[in-house]
Amino acid sequence: MQAEARHHHHHHHHHLTKLFVFGDSYADTGNVQKSVSTSWKDPYGITFPGKPAGRFSDGRVLTDFIAKHLKVKSPIPYRLRKVIPNHLKYGMNFAFGGSGVFKTSFPLPNMTTQIDFFQQLIEKRVYSALDLTKSVALVSVAGNDYSYYLATNGSAEGLPAYVGAVVSQTVKNLIRIKGLGVKKIVVGGLQPLGCLPSITVATSYERCNETTNALVLLHNSLLSEAVSKLNKRSMEPSTFLVLNLYESFLSVLKQKQKDPSTHHIGNKLKPCCVGVSSGYTCGDVDKNKVKMYRVCDDPKSAFFWDLVHPTQAGWHAVYNKLRTMNTLQHIHFDHA
Predict the structure, then answer these.
(1) Nearest to 330 by CA among 192, 236, 219
(2) Which segments of the chain have a pLDDT < 50?
């Protein structure tokens, strides 16, 4: 009887979809160490959970909305896996803000290393093959490889070839995650980088940079092509899905004010939290601990939180767009 009861309990546990997350700050929920990241400083996290908690936003990020969609709790950051072990049943978040598919400026685990962490947990039987039968992976590639390339004097002529390299490495990563037993893999297409405040500050947040967005479109078309090839080879229907963050970001940014789902977002290109003078960014304080940033009156009325990251309201609006674009219904499992 004892054994049977235990088995029954286990069976129930596997009904839960697990979410495994890889990538960067668009998906990180607290992996980057406090000593190196603004995501642990005020005013990050003021909307949710009410204090800085390692998310690069005033509140929830893409991971949280995808978890909500799958009806599970947001998976625990890898860094905290020993601190809150009872949360392992929802999956795990391996994303590190600032990382890329290749090496970036910080000594952070890139995506290959993040997948190594995942593989080690499977080898240690933290997750079994049965655990993975209802698993989804979210893979965020939001452009750190490109900012690193440009910051380290990569030439503009070399960019198209580099885009090809980033996409092909991303695809290798997707194949590897599937090989570890994950059933559905959702990869973010690149958002319109030319609309990020770090770029639009040059036009006082008035206009997106079309040259930058052309690069994004190249990345996204290569990614979509590669993913549809993978799906043709795969036996199961739509194992791999691309989240069209380009269209969903743009449609929110271009939306007329009347749509209630965007919560009256005002100048959509202007960030809510900015440094008060050059050299300072959101969260910075000077040597006397004086705040060197300004925060808008209502983060719900801004799409961007800081120079690169959406607010919780921004992510919510993007998530609503993704739902209306019908991308997301393919990541559900029919609960048997």
Answers:
(1) 236
(2) 1-13, 335-336
The phi-psi region of residue 104 (left if phi > 0; otherwise alpha if psi is between -120 and 50; otherwise beta) is beta
Q: Which of 64, 140, 306, 316 is catalytic?
A: 306
Q: What is the C-alpha separation between 194 and 200, in angstroms, rounded?
A: 7
Query: How many Å apart are CA 178 and CA 173, to the nearest integer?
Result: 9
pLDDT at position 326 is: 79
Query: Does the annotation mark 8 as catalytic?
Result: no
Task: Report the C-alpha gap between 246 and 251 in whole angstroms.
Answer: 9
| 234 annotated active-site | no
Neighbour-count burial of 186, counting CB atoms closer than 10 A to its CB (0-12 exposed, 13-18 middle, 19+ buried):
buried
- 330: its two tokens: 């393919």
Q: Which of 69, 219, 309, 316 is catalytic?
A: 309
Is 309 catalytic? The answer is yes
pLDDT value, residue 48: 98
Q: What is the pLDDT of residue 153?
A: 79
What per-residue confidence (pLDDT) applies to 235? Answer: 75
| CB within 8 Å of 120: residues ≥ 6 apart | none
Residue 336 corresponds to which amino acid?
Answer: A
What are the residue ranges spanned by the domains of the chain? 2-264+311-327
**CA proximity to 38, closest of 227, 247, 231, 305:** 305
Could you say which of 3.90.1150.10, 3.40.50.300, 3.40.50.1110, 3.90.70.10 is the CATH number of the domain covering 2-264+311-327? 3.40.50.1110
3-state class percentages of the chain: helix first, strand second, coil last, to nearest 5:
45, 10, 45
The one-letter code for the residue type at 191 is Q
Which one from 25, 39, 99, 140 is the annotated catalytic residue? 25
Residue with tokens 């049977």: 4
Question: Residue 264: its pLDDT value, please?
Answer: 65
